Amino acid sequence: DQQVKQNSPSLSVQEGRISILNCDYTNSMFDYFLWYKKYPAEGPTFLISISSIKDKNEDGRFTVFLNKSAKHLSLHIVPSQPGDSAVYFCAAYYNTDKLIFGTGTRLQVFP
Amino acid sequence: KAGVTQTPRYLIKTRGQQVTLSCSPISGHRSVSWYQQTPGQGLQFLFEYFSETQRNKGNFPGRFSGRQFSNSRSEMNVSTLELGDSALYLCASRSGGGDEQFFGPGTRLTVL
Predict the structure, then answer these.
(1) If both were cysteines, with which of A80, A90, A96, B49 could A23 make a disulfide (CB 3.0 to 4.6 Å apart)?
(2) Interchain CB distance below 8 Å, A43 and B58
């Protein structure tokens, strides 16, 4: 049972435009959400996180939005750059217990 | 500060064999978690160790086991390898109560 879902396996965006990556979850007990970015042959690197008591967190070009009623979060990247091309995973915790990952979305930013 | 290291980086085994993977966490981190990444499945949580004790466990068969040593280094063992065990195995460390996990580069295991 996939508790964290990323329904879009891939996304292609033009450089300079906004990239929106989506993530849905089923467990209402999740209280902390994270986005990780992964390049081939490397481990995932932490990008940005949000606590369930907030609905938005911003860090430079990256903003994460959380809609608890819809059990949905999204990552916005503005403006998108070619170096952002990678696989993005959303992940969720409850009670700082085990981290549950989504299946990932491959983002490609083209010139 | 050195990051999370994993050895070996690549491994080829045959069905029925066993394998041991190693992970050295960031200095001072007491929690080590292991994940399996396969195409289409994302990162599947295997288990987490904290202060030499298994704190959490995912839904994997008993062929997958692990341990943690007093210096926080961790090993993961897979016995009686199956073709489906071919994957990238990632370990991650965190300080304990912290939420952010720091990942190593992974060990690519191929089972023939």
Answers:
(1) A90
(2) no
- Say whether residue B101 is in contact with chain A using an 8 A CB cutoff: yes
What mean pLDDT, rounded, does chain A reach?
A: 93
CB contact under 8 A, A89 and B42: yes
**Model pLDDT for residues A4-21, shown as the tens digit of each residue:** 999 999 999 999 999 999
Q: Cα–Cα distance between B109 and B21 in angstroms, integer? A: 9
SS (H, E, C) chain A: CCCEECCCCEEEEECCCCEEEEEEECCCCCCEEEEEEECCCCCCEEEEEEECCCCEEEECCEEEEEECCCCEEEEEECCCCHHHCEEEEEEEECCCCCCEECCCEEEEEEC
B35 to chain A: which residues are within 8 Å by CB? 101
Residue B30 to residue B54: CA distance in whole angstroms: 12
* Res. A1 pLDDT band, cuts 50 70 90: low
- Chain A / chain B CB contacts < 8 angstroms: 53
Most distant CA pair in chain A: distance in Å?
A: 42
Nearest Cα neighbor of B41 from B82, B79, B88 is B88
